Amino acid sequence: MSKTKTTDTNYSPTMVSDKLEVLYELQNVDSQIDKVRVLRGELPLEVEDLEVEIKKLNDRLEKQSDIESEFNNSIVLQENKIKEANALIKKYETQQMKVRNNREFDAINKEMEFQGLEIELANKKIKGVGVELEENAGKIKLIKAKIRERKKHLKKKKTELDSIIQSTEKEEAKLLSKKKKVSKLIPDSLMSSYDSIRLASRNGLAVVKVSRGACGGCFSSITSQHHLNIKLRKEIYFCENCGRILVPDDIDSK
Ligand SMILES: [Zn+2]
Fold first, then answer.
1. What domains does the chain contain, in order, with CATH numbers?
2. Percentage of the chain surpassing pLDDT 90?
3. CA 185 to CA 180: how far, in whole Å?
4. Measuring CA to CA, how many Å separate 58 from each of 62, 142, 254?
5. 39: which of 74, 84, 147, 171 lies 20 to 30 Å off by Cα?
6. pLDDT digits (tens, 9 = 90+) for 177-201
């Protein structure tokens, strides 16, 4: 929009001045509504982050628990091997009593020795797994403590955020009813200009003050004649560069 002024130039100075003041007020209300909405939009993110963190911790806990049962299974496996070896040794002992010669005796002895080694190996493995099991139990304990702590934090945050959301909703409702009242004082054509400028503006500003001879929205300079007219509140001026509605910097000094 590069129009310099409204087509309707029949406003009396007081009427223009009133409209500028109402537009400025509307802008303030809208900016406050924007702020409340942005705030409320960001709040649940914190809770969401915590929920994701807890889920990751639970996944880790599950993984460590799986590892724990794997370790326990391998201990059972080794214990069974020991039982089998012991049973074999017992069997060999009775066999040895019935041998007929040295050759047979030595052969059985070799078998027994072998089973003895098997038992030794299994015990060694059990010991090794035991160390790892202990290490893993330490990890599980830490993760469980962390989950408890994060859950407590989440609960606190949730209550906190619920109350903030409630209060921002109340504030927004109040601001919206104020906006409704203020909007009624603005002619339809001006209102639709305002709405479309606001929609196009990234920061939601449709009405800006003139600041040091420049548009307060895009900072491009304004001719001194326009500046003077804006100061005198003669007409409604739009910034030639960004299209925003320009109001004098003393608009709110009443
Ligand atoms: Zn501008």
1. 13-247 (1.10.287.1490)
2. 85
3. 9
4. 6, 12, 60
5. 147
6. 999 999 999 999 999 999 999 999 9
Q: Residue range 207-214: average pLDDT?
A: 95
CA of 198 to the centre of ligand 1 (A): 12
Backbone angles phi, psi at 151, to 5 degrees: -65, -40
C-alpha distances (whole Å) from 89 to each of 84, 109, 117, 118, 121 are: 9, 9, 11, 11, 15
Ligand 1: centre distance to CA 171 (Å): 30
Q: Report pLDDT digits (tens) over 83-111.
A: 999 999 999 999 999 999 999 999 999 99
Cβ < 5 A residues, ion ligand 1: 215, 217-218, 239, 241-242, 244
Structure tokens at 228: 């003077």
Separation between Cα atoms, residue 253 and residue 250, nearest integer Å: 5
CA 138–ligand 1 middle distance (angstroms) = 63
